[in-house]
Write a structure and sequence with these properties.
2 copies of one chain form a homodimer. Chain A is an all-alpha fold. Chain A has 2 domains: 59 residues, Orthogonal Bundle (Multidrug-efflux Transporter Regulator, Chain: A, Domain 2); 79 residues. Chain A is built from 5 helices and 2 strands, in the order H-H-E-E-H-H-H. The first copy, chain A, has a two-stranded antiparallel sheet with strand order 1-2. In chain A, strand 1 and strand 2 form a beta hairpin. The first copy, chain A, is flat and about 70 Å long. Chain A starts with 7 loop residues before the first helix and ends with a helix. Chains A and B meet through helix 3, helix 4 and helix 5 of A and helix 3, helix 4 and helix 5 of B. The structure holds a DNA duplex.
Chain lengths: 140, 140
Amino acid sequence: MSTKTYRIEEVSNITGLTKRAIRYYEDLNLISPQRTESSYRLYTDEDIEKIKRIVSLKESLAFSLAEIKQTLELDQEVENILSAEMAELATLNNYIEMIKSQIKLIGEKVDKLKATGERFEDLLSRLSCLEEKVRKEDVR
Amino acid sequence: MSTKTYRIEEVSNITGLTKRAIRYYEDLNLISPQRTESSYRLYTDEDIEKIKRIVSLKESLAFSLAEIKQTLELDQEVENILSAEMAELATLNNYIEMIKSQIKLIGEKVDKLKATGERFEDLLSRLSCLEEKVRKEDVR
DNA sequence: CTCTAGCTTAACATTAACGTCAAGGTTAAT
DNA sequence: ATTAACCTTGACGTTAATGTTAAGCTAGAG
């Protein structure tokens, strides 16, 4: 068994979270790394996996109001262009790129959410199996 | 044209937002309802549609850290049950229901995100048409 | 006309999720 | 043994997105 452990800075680099955020998650009892005698936090690969799951769930956070505003504005601007049926080529291509990146972003969020959903689908089917089994034994 | 207007409380009931939130969105320039002479806010059906879009985008917000924690805990508890391969029927069915509701919730968020995505897909294809058209005219 | 319910702005409060010091202990290389 | 580069725990600051309270107009029912 690989018993390698990591200190917080390394974990920060691996997960993309700040050290502050990682400690904060510990305050919230999302994670509970071991400690050295001098109370340095030591993270295992398991801890890191858990943190990665947290990050994935967090990243599927969709929109702050500021982002919603931008989204609606982009929408509106494009609608204006479309109804005017004219614009410079450069402008058009600009907007096309912006919309493409929006679509990509949304797609990524959808994927992450779906991954979480599938995880639960899996748990559900396994639980259902167990339930059936237990039910039969109870009858017996 | 239906010129019906609504006062803020009505809008609150229709959209499920608090009056405070609705006013706050106005501060952020997400909406700009008309005003009566005595500066009462008057919302049109269009305003309400816009607010509904905002709500939809907001609801696709996936998880706060508190929710993430619950999600991970549920996951863990189910894993424990599964690995122990035993539990009372009532307990099992409880967890099955909890997981089902998680799955449903995630499905709803995915749907809302997808709706937003499709909206942009539509804009993109219309923009691309226009771009092509403009490009041809430019060449001419 | 009056009263109540609803509207307004303004201002301060709160919660989540961190950022940013500060003061001091630890580790490891030189 | 020293020093730089880590780590620790506070504690206070910040931003977004509201909640709450207050003080004072307004609209509509009776």
